[in-house]
Design brief:
The protein is α/β, with parallel strands linked by helices. It contains ten helices and 15 strands. α2 crosses α8 and α2 packs antiparallel against α9. Bound molecules: lysine.
Amino acid sequence: KVASMLVAGLVLAACGKKEPAPAASAPVASAPASAAEPAPAKVYAVGTDAAYAPFEFQNEKGEIVGFSVDLLNAVAEKGGFKVKFVNTPWEGIFNALGQGDRDVLISSITITDERKQTMDFSDPYFDANQLIAVKENSKVAKFDDLKKLKVGVQTGTTGDEVVTKLQGKTATTIKRFESTPLALKELEAGGVDAVVADNGVVIHYVANNAGAKFKTVSDTKSFAPEQYGIAVKKGNAELLAQINKGLAAVKADGTYNAIYKKTFGTEPAAAAASA
Ligand code: LYS
């Protein structure tokens, strides 16, 4: 960590950013960079919608933290590149990548055939599935029970997709929110009868909001397995290769498992780490 901070400092200095002037007695620090030195590594801008605990969220200090942040930092170290996380709203996140405002996206993004048309994905790094959240006293027992109910989803997510498929494109009973926590807040307030979203986030929310009196309903028959991937701009093969190299390394050396355990408190199921 100290080493990477040092390198970051060197990168800043080499870019000509105004760092505090070194003490006069530190001649080495003020030596001019020679042409023989390797060019400083580019710092890639990483877009993430930090409203998705425990994967990506802001801590009390406003820093972007979580499983995805720990993972990509480790991947970058092994892959030989540098990253800087930028909070990016979900609704604009794919455009930000397409327009080059972000170089990488890590935001619990499910790899789908449709998305593969407009961006390239790393190897999968996390297994997920949709999960239903309802109030404790709800009679909902399976996905089909939501056919005529008011359901909250996060706009443009795979949760939105499955509910739209169930209820139809013109259904007025689908309430779309810009984040999953907002949809869950609406469930608590009674504005929707259920929320359909990624299992990890729903489970985390339910566990940390006992006062909301939610329960989860799983329906493995109705929901296809999903996998999260790290996205780069279509055709950015060089960066994608670095990411996949780093990902393979953190899976192989136990770093992935350690980050998983730090986040979820348990070892990953065999499939999650080897996916
Ligand atoms: N994994 C889901 C998807 O890709 C939800 C992602 C939401 C991230 N905030 O659509």
